[in-house]
Please model this.
Amino acid sequence: MNSSHFKELAQIGIALSREKDINKLFEIIVDEARSLTGADGGTLYLIDKRKMQLRFEILHNDTMKMRMGGTTGVEITLPPVPLFNTGQPNYANVSSYVALTGTIVNVPDLYEAEGFDFTGASMYDDRTGYRSQSMLVIPMKSHEDDVIGVLQLLNARDPKSNKVISFDPQSVDSIASLASQAAVALTNRQLFEELVEAKRRTERAFLDTVQRLAIVAAYKDKETALHVKRMSRYSAILAGGLCLSPAQADIVLHGSQMHDVGKIGIPDAILLKPAKLDAREWDIMKQHTTIGGHMLSGSPSELMQAGRTIALSHHERWDGSGYPKGLEKEDIPLLGRICAVADVFDAVTTRRPYREAYSTQEAYKFLREGRGKQFDPRVVDVFFARLDEIVAIQKPSIHNSLIHTSAWEVA
Ligand SMILES: [Fe+2]
Ligand SMILES: [Fe+2]
Model:
């Protein structure tokens, strides 16, 4: 390998490791291999381990003005190459042979070569007038020496005369090195994508668990199923309006769904009492905040931690008259101040067994009057600044005077 090849390879290696789009990665590999050898054509196959066959990913041929697969959007309709025929390894096909054995094959002229079946190429030549001649077929090996694909180059050309020549045995090393870099980049990319997908699945499963936790609380108290859904959306809107990042607003969206999980620990006689609570019952009811706090404590998850903060502080009031701690103003966590507005607005606009719902106008008045008393004035201001979005969420269910819905609708 000469030094310019070496430099080129190093640069390609960097480009390969940076490329995030797998189809572009395929193209870079074939383009670079062809430019290193002057090959007229190039094909990249990947091994489909499940089906035990070689699948065409890229098909390039300059003379035939052909560029298929990769990012071109042109589908390669050629059938995949089987690695086995009736249980026997398919050594007759050169690409399959290379995939199965991991060896490099360098053929000066297909028409004079022995041991391989090149009828596919000669049929192509007959049909098109092309003349397939020299071929270099190289396995793409991963870090673990697994062959993951095959790179096949066709018709090396002399850079001066442009005549088809054999592949220079010296360039074989460069191509083998390129192919292994490519294989590593490809496996990395595949592993990365699998990792991203696994992370996505875990996150989904986690959110699902969080929602089920909210459902547990809602299950006892049928009225809260839709309440949780609306209240969490209001909270996310308020979070966005307070310039929290989209990721933080998302945490508010999901974390606020757990605001009343502690209600699971409140006796039904109190939780479901169809009348106003007396002072003693009310004291017990208030404990849903600290019960929820206990239930959600000690989690390494940011979302669970936010849920805990909200469970503990959504009944605190700006003027210090709330519970459980009687915190004041900015001593109340912001998430709690946000959810307090969302929670109360939804609660008062919903009919309860022991009282009628406020009209929307009455609810607005209630929030305005509570600005700087019960509620953080900034949060109330954002509520009115974002009223359009709030109303859009409120509307569909405003006529549900008393909500008896499946708890599963929370999700
Ligand atoms: Fe609550
Ligand atoms: Fe609530």
